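>> received
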Amino acid sequence: MFASEIPLALPPSPFITAAAMTSSPLPIAWCEFNQQAWHSDLHQHWQLPLPLALHSAVTKRKAEHLASRWLAQQMLARFAMPDFILRNAPDRSPVWPVGIQASLSHSQQMAVIAATKAPLCIGVDVEQVMAEQTAEETAEMLMSSAERQRLTAAALPFAAAATLLFSLKESVYKALWPQLHQLMDFLQAELLEWDLTQGRATLTLTQDFSREFNAGTRLQAHFWRRGDRVITLIAHPLNNP
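>> returned
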C-alpha cells in the first residue's frame, strides 16, 4: 500500500492478520485485525491491559483498542521505546511520549499510526468508503459548493471522493487538536486541489483559530487507497514545538 513498506512480524494469534510499516513520507504503520478472533486473554498475553472503562464495552471497541495499542507498541519500538503502552487523556485523545508527535486512527478492522520526532502537527485517518446515499445525505455538511464541483469533476465515484474529503478533513482536525484544543466543523477547512495519481492534496483553513493557524493557512496532505478504505495524512510544520 505504501512505498517501500516492510511487513511487521505478526503475533502468534489469528487476531492481527496483516501489518506493515513505511518511513515515507514519515513513519507510518498499519495493521488489519479480525474482530471475531479477539478474546480477553490477549490483553494479558501481550501485556496491553484493557482499561476499566472498556470492560463492559462491545467487542468491536475492545478489538480496536487492542489492535491500536499493539500497533502503537510496534511503532514506538522504532523510537527505542519497545515497552510503551498507549493510554488516553481525559478527553480520550492518545497520550504520546514527550518528543513524539503522532496520530492514530482505526476503522472497519484496520488501524493506522503516523509518528515522528520532527516538529510537525500530525493527523492520520482511515475510513471505509461510504455508501452513495450517505455521501449525498452528508454533502451539505461536509463540503462547500466549490468542493462539490471538484469532487464531481474527479475521476472517482462520488461516494469515494466524498469519503476521501471527509477523511482529509478528519486528519486536519486531528493534526490541529493538540495545538488548538478547539472543535472544528467540516467547512472550516476547504480542499483547494488534489492529485489522485500522486495521492497529494492541499487544503486551506477558512477561519482564524490562532496566530499560526489562521484563515488561509495551507495544509499539505497525502492519501492512499487499500481496498474499500482510504487513508489520509496531514503533516504540517510546527513553528513553536
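>> The domain at 125-237 is CATH 3.90.470.20 (Ribosomal Protein L22; Chain A).
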